[in-house]
UniProtKB/TrEMBL annotation:
One Pfam family from the record: Acetyltransf_CG
UniProt protein name: N-acetyltransferase
N-acetyltransferase domain sequence ranges: 6-92
Native source organism of the sequence: Micromonospora radicis
InterPro entries, sorted: Acyl_CoA_acyltransferase, Gcn5-rel_NAT, GNAT_YJDJ
Stretch forming the signal peptide: none
Keywords: Transferase
GO molecular function, one term: transferase activity
Amino acid sequence: MSMLVEENPAKHRYEILVDDALAGFTQYLPRAEVLIFTHTEVDPAFQNMGVGSALIRGALDQVRAQGQRVVPQCPFMAAFIEHHPEYADLVTSPA
């Protein structure tokens, strides 16, 4: 099973492809150098397979590489960051 996380700027979200099929996304509102993440969704066919965590990890790694910060309003992303403190430095307050 191959997973690829890509940003889709036109839809303001990061998407995860599993074996080339869209398996989920995490949506954001862009505010300068801050992305306010509002919603994460994983297709039911891909739940309980680590797809959601891979999606959030991939999105946060790309946010870090671009020098941006996040506001995790999405409960799934907030919980992921709480359980993975190596991403806590990306969290900021909404502007």
